Amino acid sequence: MLQLHTFGGLRIERDGQALQLSTHKARALLAYLIIFRRRSHPRSVLAGTLWPDLAEDKARRHLSDTLWRIRSVLGDCVAADEECVGLNLSQPCWLDVQEFEAGLQAARGESQIAASLASHLATCIELYRGPFLDGLYDDWALAEQERLRVLYLEALQRLLELRKQAADYLSALEIAQRLVAAEPLHETAHRELMCLYHLLGRDAEAVAQYLGCREILRLELGEVPAPETEALYQTLSRAARPAEVQAVHLPAPARGSVVTLEEPPLVGRD
Question: pTM value?
């Protein structure tokens, strides 16, 4: 079966074997068809979107050549006639972003106490291997990249709450670590990690998490931790042996990547 992977970058596989599209435009066209997969697209629109600087007749010739390259790899999973082009989802084709959204939809239909809720969320989180179509910077892709990133962060937040409610603090810790890795400026997630380290008897790591959070806020925003973060640090630092405190290595955040996950809205920090 053909598999299209979009999280962490576009990858194509058939029966476990990696397939390659030979040109950047072929990858961009396939990405466009994936993003707007629920409809067909006039050839004139595709040509103008991907080759905006060319005359229409020349752009359409480039489109025809690029479509040939894509269909030689994907076969009938891309449908094309003289007027329109689209992704043919009736063909056997696995698409990770489609599975991700279906899983989130299933999770929304579950009650907060349903055992399958956590399973749906965990499956979606595992599908998210990195930013959607990572490396694609076209304007028409950016909004979808951000929308899916926010959905991922919300899924992490919801699963984190479920793990805490079940007192599964080790699993909750892993989810909180993913949340901080995905959004290093989300100060509430740093506090979650500090509390979870404490609940697991790892107070030195809780203090180190605070130090890492403080450094990121200083470097990226020129700010200090919120009073509640500072108060938590003061409480936990008294329980930790100073000799055990070591710096936590956190990923460098992309500037301007702060995302609101709770009320009241966060602007870079709580």
Answer: 0.83
